[in-house]
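Dear U.,

Please find below the material for section 3 of the report. The protein was modelled together with nicotinamide-adenine-dinucleotide; I have listed the sequence and SMILES used, followed by the predicted complex structure.
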Amino acid sequence: MKLLVTGGAGFIGSAVVRLAMARGHQVVNVDALTYAACLDNVAMVADSPDYAFEQVDIRDRAALDAVFAKHQPDAVMHLAAESHVDRSIDGPADFIETNVTGTFNMLEAARTYWTAQGKPDSFRFHHISTDEVFGSLPNDPSIKFTEDTPYDPRSPYSASKASSDHLVRAWHETYGLPVVLTNCSNNYGPFHFPEKLIPVIILNALAGKALPIYGDGSNIRDWLYVEDHADALLLVVEKGEVGRSYNIGGENERTNLELVKTLCAILDQARPKAAGSYADQITFVTDRPGHDARYAIDPTRIRTELGWRPSVTVEEGLEKTVAWYLANEDWWRALQSRHGVGERLGVKA
Ligand SMILES: NC(=O)c1ccc[n+]([C@@H]2O[C@H](COP(=O)([O-])OP(=O)(O)OC[C@H]3O[C@@H](n4cnc5c(N)ncnc54)[C@H](O)[C@@H]3O)[C@@H](O)[C@H]2O)c1
């Protein structure tokens, strides 16, 4: 398939690009190269004749039309977004413009192209979203997010993603555009931008700095290794039922404090400190405003209908992740000077 992947220079998008190409697909990577992008993430495929890169902002409709006309994709995998909740608290406008208006532009550019092609049934518009659209769960293991959970977004980020999900469903119902949607839990793994929790903890630990934990560390997240997410996304774009959404999660619920302690234990083995444990650097800081208590995904639909399974446990995935950061210092050092990285964001509210 020829896949038009938006956001392919970001964390998850680049994992999709690498895996899609390893599986023989052609890829057109459409990315504006914001502060969160890094073309090194796809440097290993950049010289392939099956890869093309277009530096295009999804807020620019005319530029999107030109990309569709030039590359004639079989499917779209739409990942481009502003993705950092703390930044959405300080500056929500970018989130509305990219995540809502940008998705609207993508839908209209795709619809125009698909209509001009004679509306082929085989075309797919795959919208990649988050479990954060469902809001916050009580601490009861029997309650998880299913595809039927009502939307209840609570941050500017999750509200913008929820809006984009609604647009995608409306374009299917109204215009017949063949869409599929996925809502995934928290990802981690190689090439994770150094402002997100797991890389912050690894890099601060190595630098001898405080390991900041929001509130009392009791917030629960459901962690998924990024390469398992990319695998699920390729399965959905190829085999998902049109008009249907799929929840993707690793069934790996951990409190933030448990997660950080696990990372410290892995680091204690991989790069022991002269004295003590990295856990001695844990520091509790003011909580994020409106911090959702718990996210947990019920992935029954994608497991039973499409046969998807994650390949690693969270412990295996975290060990691989720590090993990757230890081996790729040049990659993360270059990103630490980008605007806002290393600062505490999202506490103005
Ligand atoms: N990170 C997670 O844990 C997670 C979980 C579930 C879903 N998601 C979703 O997956 C997608 C990718 O997330 P990520 O963590 O890889 O994000 P990221 O911030 O690492 O990457 C986003 C990419 O989109 C690009 N981009 C941003 N604005 C753009 C614009 N206006 N035009 C074109 N490109 C633009 C950036 O340059 C960057 O390369 C997002 O849609 C996000 O909502 C993320």
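For the text of the report, you could mention the following: The chain has eleven helices and twelve strands.

Regards,
Y.
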